[in-house]
């Protein structure tokens, strides 16, 4: 027998048990959060902390660091993290590879966790990076150490779908982005709000300023709330970073680990430089790669066009190591694929621009080769920072032209960069000039890449601000073009110098006369310099790119070209010097006597006669658009029977005009003459109208008399024999009527664009016209009724 339940007792239901469990969990979390907040406040800033477990961190962050194998703090982390946990603004500077990423990611997670941040609170932290690759790397580290948190994080960079990012942007708590893309979302995404941002982080702040993002960063900072925590990190501190910190940070803490060491680069990094002329750089680089096929190498060049040319050339030469290339012109998917492949490879060589120089962490890089001299010492420090990271060993080599040695070494010495001179082994060197020349001839596209790389390199040297290091006149550009396999150096429009200007200003006639006056020495010298490759590249039937390339090669020392508008380069070079035509009559006569017959003169087009002395000008006169530039405004040309142009209204000579008397008398005389002419023409017109009226009246009387006499219209003679004055009613009267079927002409075949409706409409119109035109003029009431009945049919 089952006993009844006791009075007053109730069994706990499952729902009640769950509620109690939730309340206990919330209370426990609140207690943990309160104790964590107290621990952060009691954290001593003067105490040196070496391990992450000694920091007052939440359990999700501690678990994420342990799972990612982060245990020991670096110097910059031990100094920056405690300050950031307390909510201080930080201006941090540390060597490359010193762990700056964790120095700001750990405080970002902890500060949002202590503020109980949820997805309904919107965006809480914004992290800005100068390049896409660095932003991706920061995001991956954030995913690793924040795997146990409930925050939502997003990556906002260019090269992806803007619409997909807009749909997810409103739900993000932490964003890692590039400046341009972030500003685009602030301007275009309606649901994106940044009014509640708590933290702003800028990694590689100096690079953000140098890359031209200063305007974008200023606009982003203006959108953010004034009350926030801001952290700026960089390997080097510049004036722009200081200005940005002064505007964006409130009582910042300057954290730096440079002063404690004697060098701005890691102590485990071995740094060398080689004095290599510009014409021998590619040979030295190829020999170096062949001698280190078991290593992991990064080669830095100054432009993306150089990266493409060197990569394509060395790929054909097959140095025995996997080759890759990375530059800013590539699509985002390709850049991600190349970055991941190089990171996972054990031995490979990647040719890259400075897009790789900042912040990227490639594991186990053995060598960093700088074939092109960096723009300053800070860029050098960031480049070599791709190796010897996290106290590992690494090596770096800088290629210097003899003209760059003194200036660059002074800059590095000022930055406390220990670098020593070395030489390449003679046995390991190998010349590849002949092979590159052969490849450029066989592959016109490679030749095209070569000349674009040459122009890009010379432009990068020309625009450098530090002229003590970079002086374009000190470089052997002809030798550099030859080392790339090019038959001649492409023209450089921005190159300065009196010799270049003088050569460009000399006309072609004077150039030919100077050659003849020298007894043919110049021609003989030019023929001696010509090689078989020069004759090969003059062929016009290689490829569509060969014609473009031939325009970029100087035909002689004066820079003569077949293009009348100058270089056809798509990059629109600047500081062009146009060819000046001499105006001295004696020089022009002597040139004409020496160079050939004089050009044809054409008068009447403009104020001055046009001299046709070239096919280009002759072709220009065939174009109406080009001809308008030579004509005077407000004029119109007419051509006579011989094809000579004349102005429709030509001005009379003033002296001839004054001989005929004062202007007022001539005007009165002109008005009188014009009035007489109009009066005479009026009389003639009236006489003609009266004659035509008289003829029509006589003809009508003759027709009426014939009808009364019963004579057919055909027997009535025409009163007017002239065809011009023939009455059109005679022709209409002779046409057959509808009942005269046998007199109709045969029906023509319809054309492809006609149908039966057209025939019916034409027949109806024709019938109406016959009825109207063949009826005589009504004179009585019966005639009017008959006419009306015919029209109503």
TrEMBL record:
User: What broad class of enzyme is this?
Assistant: hydrolase
Q: Where is the composition biased (Acidic residues)?
A: 584-594, 710-725
Keyword Nucleus attached:
yes
Basic and acidic residues bias spans? 17-31, 520-531, 656-690, 751-763
PANTHER family attached to this UniProt entry: RNA HELICASE
Give the Gene3D superfamilies listed for this entry: P-loop containing nucleotide triphosphate hydrolases
According to its UniProt record, where is this protein located?
Nucleus, Nucleolus
- Could you say which protein family the record assigns here? Belongs to the DEAD box helicase family.
A GO term for molecular function: RNA helicase activity
Q: Record's domain comment?
A: The Q motif is unique to and characteristic of the DEAD box family of RNA helicases and controls ATP binding and hydrolysis.
Designated name of the protein? ATP-dependent RNA helicase
- Keyword Acyltransferase assigned to the entry: answer is no
Q: Tell me which species this is from.
A: Amylocarpus encephaloides
Which Gene Ontology BP annotations are present? rRNA processing
For the region Disordered, what residue ranges are annotated?
1-31, 497-531, 554-606, 653-777
Q: Which residues form the Helicase ATP-binding domain?
A: 81-255
Any idea where the DEAD-box RNA helicase Q domain is? 50-78
Sorted alphabetically, the keyword list is: ATP-binding, Helicase, Hydrolase, Nucleotide-binding, Nucleus, Ribosome biogenesis, RNA-binding, rRNA processing
